[in-house]
Amino acid sequence: xxxxxxxxxxxxxxxxxxxxxxxxxxxxxxxxxxxxxxVPTRCxxxxxxxxxxxxxxxxxxxxxxxxxxxxVCQNRSGYTIKLFTKNGARSGAENGVLASDEGQGGxxxxxxxxxxxxxxxxxxxxxxxxxxxxxxxxxxxxxxVSVNGTPNRADAAYTDILVIAITGN
Length: 169
Hints:
Helix content: 10-25%
Distance between the termini: 72 Å
Number of strands: 10
Oligomer: single chain
CATH architecture: Sandwich
Radius of gyration: 31 Å
Mean pLDDT: 81
Low-confidence stretches: 5-22
Number of helices: 2
Largest sheet: 7 strands, antiparallel
Number of domains: 1
Strand content: 35-45%
CATH class: Mainly Beta
Structural class: alpha+beta
């Protein structure tokens, strides 16, 4: 006797279920393929200098924003940001030093990163330790310097180079 209506649908679903069950038991046997993918750690910095970085006012003692730094790192253990100063490494200074190529002495300056003061040791400083990953868009932090007044310095160009690095923890 032929099956009609809902009874035919039930019989068809029962048959499909038995085939799926038989197929899934075979997939777990010798003919299986394990799939694995790895997302590598990605930690990046994007530094956007501001115009003030190339025209520091030496008479000012106030904080001058010289760059915006975007930190991006998806390492679950977090990341570390380090800041290096070229001239600070030469002088052993705790603060940065703007030096003249003419040997006219140095102009000291202090640095803040994300609002926190930076203290260099042999030209390097750990400025941020994060214990988790950033969001996809990253985190923006402001890099600022404060230059001590320099009324007795010789006329010359005074420079330093700051390098920022990021590593996963």
